[in-house]
What we know:
Radius of gyration: 14 Å
Distance between the termini: 20 Å
Number of domains: 1
Largest sheet: none
Number of strands: 0
Structural class: mainly alpha
Order of helices and strands: HH
Shape: flat
Helix content: 25-40%
Mean pLDDT: 84
Amino acid sequence: KDKEKEEYIISKNPCLEKCNIIYNSDAHYLYDINEAENYIELESETIVDILEALNRKK
């Protein structure tokens, strides 16, 4: 579902093709939480490492 939206948005805005896309979860129940495929790998939980991870090339 999110992947289809992402593909549509990128098709309309090609400049986003090289960008990292962030997904959020508005889950109110554990079984509604996004799958573990949506994650960021970090060296540590510092703002510097978070920003570095977000700025990595796809």
